[in-house]
Design a protein that fits this description.
5-stranded antiparallel beta sheet, about 220 residues, elongated, alpha+beta
């Protein structure tokens, strides 16, 4: 999931980005064309309003489509109600970031599931362990060192959602821009309905270090 993976947040992000970009361009062009400050400010404002409306519409639609593709409500991004609401166990997203700064690509992130009896299973994607790229109960994941984690209790219905997510190979393949933090954040969000982000605002580069900083900031 991205930060704008629902209609509402897509409107907010798209509108804000569209307004600021168009305002800056309109204001700058006004000054360069010889307008005085007030006239240039008004030109920038008009451009910003147009850009904001356009950005909000586009961002909302794209966000809603992304939510819909992931079986969420188009407008709110909420998971559908229903199913077995008994507690199955818990899901934990874990991350460690050994690089300097939140933009570092060093580190690793993975998912651990624990049932009501305490049996734990880890799921992580790796790009340097050969095939398959999805590793279950791998020594580098299960019970290994972590800098940050977030745990959420899940129902049997949510466990079924997790299984559905894992059964799609497109969700578990590793790539540079679809790395371990991309996998773990999407699996966690898809299962729980939460929105843990593993990338900076509007920059869709997923990193374990950024995921660590976001979890610790909660």
């Amino acid at each position: 999931m991205t930060a704008s993976s629902i209609f509402i947040s897509g409107v907010a992000i798209g509108g804000g980005t569209g307004f600021s970009s168009a305002f800056t361009t309109g204001f700058g062009n006004g000054l360069m064309s010889g307008q005085n400050f007030n006239d240039a400010l008004w030109s920038g404002t008009k451009s910003g309003i147009i850009g904001g409306v356009s950005g909000a519409a586009l961002g909302g639609v794209l966000g809603g489509i992304d939510a819909y593709k992931n079986d969420r409500d188009f407008w709110t991004g909420k998971l559908p109600k229903g199913g077995d609401d008994r507690i199955w166990g818990e899901i934990t997203i874990k991350a460690r970031g050994i690089g300097e700064g939140s933009s570092s690509t060093d580190g690793h992130s993975w998912i651990e599931l624990k049932d009501a009896k305490g049996n734990a299973t880890s799921y992580g994607t790796w790009g340097n362990q050969g095939t398959p790229e999805l590793c279950i109960d791998y020594r580098g994941d299960l019970n290994s060192y972590t800098d940050a984690l977030q745990t959420h209790k899940i129902t049997f219905a949510q466990k079924a959602r997790f299984d559905n997510f894992m059964n799609k190979s497109t969700n578990t393949n590793w790539a540079i821009f679809k790395n371990c933090s991309y996998f773990s954040s999407r699996a966690f969000n898809y299962t729980t309905g939460l929105n843990v982000t593993a990338h900076p605002f509007m920059i869709l580069i997923f990193t374990p270090s950024w995921l660590v900083s976001k979890i610790l900031s909660k």
